[in-house]
Amino acid sequence: MEPELLRSSSEEETIVIGGDFAQRLRIGDVVALYGDLGAGKTEFVKGICTFFAVEDIVTSPTFTIINQYAGTTPDGVPVKIYHVDLYRIETPEELAEVGFDDCVFAHDAIKLVEWSEKAEHLLPRAHYTVRITADPDDDNIRLIDIRYQSVPVGIERL
């Protein structure tokens, strides 16, 4: 997949971009989200959850660390979505305490991880990366850089 650089001028547009992105996701995928506070990571996640017909209100799990949502694919297959927010995590021990490793390697769910830089060493080698930053020329515009980091077939996490 070629890298994409998209522009968003509003929260609503970021939600739409997240929904468009969600069309490529499959059960088992991991999306590592990067961006400063207020960049739009949770809005992007809301778009993904909207695509998968999640009925719950999607909020940032800053205090719960992991939210789980039930949704369905466009063809009616049930899908579990883990929305993880590592903002408050300080140590590898805290990652273990919240069950991050089990969550991120769950094969039966889509995993959306905010503040992924705090757990990069635990992410699977193959995953999507979404970086949301303010446009240096206009703070009201968000730049959304989407990439897929893949590994050769047959190579798994060591």
Query: What name goes with the CATH superfamily?
Result: P-loop containing nucleotide triphosphate hydrolases
- Quickly give the CATH architecture: 3-Layer(aba) Sandwich
Which CATH top level class fits? Alpha Beta
Compute the CA-based radius of gyration: 15 Å
Q: Span from first to last CA? A: 24 Å
Read across the widest sheet, the strand sequence of neighbours is: 1-7-6-2-5-4-3
Q: Estimate the strand proportion.
A: 25-35%
DSSP strand count = 7
- In round numbers, the mean pLDDT is 91
Describe this structure in words.
A hairpin with a 5-residue loop joins strand 3 and strand 4 (78-85). The protein has 158 residues and is α/β, with parallel strands linked by helices. It is built from four helices and seven strands. The protein has one domain: Rossmann fold (3-Layer(aba) Sandwich). The two termini are 24 Å apart. A seven-stranded mixed β-sheet has the order 1-7-6-2-5-4-3. The longest helix is centred in the N-terminal third of the chain and has 12 residues, at 11-22. Helices cover 22% and strands 33% of the residues. It is globular.
Descriptive key words:
158 residues, alpha/beta, Rossmann fold, seven-stranded mixed sheet, 4 helices, 22% helix, 33% strand, metal ion binding, transferase activity
Secondary-structure map with pairings?
Blueprint: E1 4-8, H1 11-22, E2 30-34, H2 41-51, E3 66-72, E4 78-85, H3 92-97, H4 100-104, E5 109-114, E6 127-135, E7 138-149
Parallel strand pairs: 2-5, 2-6, 4-5
Antiparallel strand pairs: 1-7, 3-4, 6-7
Helix pairs in contact: 1-2
Task: Summarize this entry quickly.
Its main location: cytoplasm. With 158 residues, the protein is α/β, with parallel strands linked by helices. It has helices at 11-22, 41-51, 92-97, 100-104, and strands spanning 4-8, 30-34, 66-72, 78-85, 109-114, 127-135, 138-149.
